[in-house]
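Quick one:
INPUT:
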């Protein structure tokens, strides 16, 4: 398949996945929905690994790393984003998640001693300024109890959890653990962890058989978690992690467009400038000569 087509499919699927999350909120507790999603996606990836004869047996220390990645990347990350969903349009959540590029680089510097470059600091300034402008109208509403700042805090915490999960993937690469295998196990562990948490907060399991919930679940499990992730990994192998990671800069544009059409998101000039600053900041970071492996990994 041509690289431009793979890139297009990956960006479109991930861009639309944020709006698909909207249909997961309602009848079924979000904790259960996340467990359903990643247990299904993990099982599908395990079947894929078996069918393609990829390695699935690993020592206990690797499984501990898989579990850590699963809890951070496929459990905590998604739980916090779903908790932020009532406070913010899904397009704004996607913009917040794009800051994972800067978080990855800073975490790589702290945890692995990777050198930081001036472009990282410049990109971070652009990104933080953009987030500030995007949420500028909300600062005037703090006294009125507006929840947008709660949503911002939850979404940034979710992004940081995802970034820590990416740091575990750096360990996988150093240990020569295959990406598909580690992701399959990570999704299984993340789904099981969320399932245990769901039993504590919502012990009565439910399922919504209506079309919006079922179709969005299939979209998130099959397309967003399996197809798009496979496409992203293919891009990493063919064109490198830096160029592939531009997907995390582009999909917020699609997510914001959907929020505008379906969620009634109202644009202001500060918001427009803020989104542009976030995108420019991420591009500056991605253009650095050295980059963290798989820096743009893993979208909801």
């Amino acid at each position: 398949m041509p690289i431009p087509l793979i890139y297009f499919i990956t960006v479109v699927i991930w861009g639309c996945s944020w709006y698909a999350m909207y249909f997961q909120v309602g009848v079924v507790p979000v904790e259960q929905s996340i467990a359903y999603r990643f247990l299904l996606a993990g099982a599908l990836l395990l079947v894929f690994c078996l069918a393609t004869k990829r390695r699935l047996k690993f020592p206990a220390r690797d499984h501990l790393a898989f579990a850590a990645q699963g809890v951070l990347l496929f459990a905590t990350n998604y739980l916090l984003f779903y908790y932020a969903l009532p406070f913010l349009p899904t397009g704004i959540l996607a913009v917040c998640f794009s800051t994972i590029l800067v978080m990855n680089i800073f975490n790589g510097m702290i945890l692995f001693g990777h050198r930081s470059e001036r472009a990282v600091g410049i990109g971070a300034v652009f990104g933080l300024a953009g987030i500030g402008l995007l949420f500028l109208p909300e600062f005037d509403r703090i006294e009125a109890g507006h929840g947008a700042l709660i949503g911002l805090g939850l979404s940034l915490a979710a992004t940081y959890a995802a970034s820590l999960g990416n740091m575990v993937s750096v360990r996988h690469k150093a240990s020569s653990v295959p990406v598909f295998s580690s992701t399959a196990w990570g999704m299984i562990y993340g789904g099981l962890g969320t399932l245990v948490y769901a039993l504590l907060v919502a012990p009565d399991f439910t399922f919504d058989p209506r079309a919006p919930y079922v179709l969005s679940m299939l979209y998130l499990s099959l397309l967003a978690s399996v197809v798009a992730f496979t496409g992203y990994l293919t891009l990493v192998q063919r064109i490198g992690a830096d160029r592939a990671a531009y997907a995390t800069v582009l999909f917020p544009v699609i997510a914001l467009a959907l929020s505008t059409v379906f969620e009634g998101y109202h644009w202001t000039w500060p918001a427009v400038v803020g989104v542009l600053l976030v995108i420019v900041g991420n591009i500056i970071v991605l253009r650095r000569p050295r980059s963290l492996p798989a820096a743009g990994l893993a979208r909801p």
